[in-house]
Amino acid sequence: MKNPFKRKYSEKELEMYEFLKELTLFKELTLEELSNFVPYMFLRRYKHNEAVFFKDDPSHALYILKSGKISLNLDLKGKFERLAVIHATDTFGENSILINKKRLYHALVMTETAEIFAIPQINIHEIFSNQPTIKAKMMENLSGMNNKFMEDLFFAYQSSFGFFSMALAYKNK
């Protein structure tokens, strides 16, 4: 039986929710849960070589790339080393869903232009406070992303015949 009180979504809303569901952080959320984020998604346009953020900046927003490419880089003695290239429908700056964190890398626009949604951290945490189920799902997804990163890091380390000391990176106290 069809529920006559169930919320109906416009075609534009459904397109946005499908876009969000492609993202690892949001993939487990329902349409109703996703609808909490859309009012806080601010579209910004960046130009080639423009910095979205720099290493050690406060992590005050989560970014979702709508179009273009972003280069994530480390600064090693004045020279950038590319960590990754972010493509449309990817997120970056995910540590913004954690409190009091700083950016771990530089994010620079690689293409002529880039369109990026920014979701302010304050709004994310407001949603988390009001809806702990959303927080639990997103933290689970973030943990999965971090686990995949660790798998890739260990594989790279094993493949490089130990050109760096893993003890320096892993649980170094």
From TrEMBL:
PROSITE patterns hit by this protein: CNMP_BINDING_3 (PS50042)
Keyword Membrane on entry: yes
Keywords noted in UniProt: Membrane, Transmembrane, Transmembrane helix
Domain Cyclic nucleotide-binding: 25-145
Residue ranges crossing the lipid bilayer per the database entry: 153-170
SUPFAM superfamilies: cAMP-binding domain-like (SSF51206)
One Pfam family here: cNMP_binding
Keyword Lipid biosynthesis: no
Domain of life assignment: Bacteria
PANTHER family found in the cross-reference section: CYCLIC NUCLEOTIDE-BINDING DOMAIN CONTAINING PROTEIN
Name assigned to this protein: Cyclic nucleotide-binding domain-containing protein
Organism of derivation: Mangrovivirga cuniculi
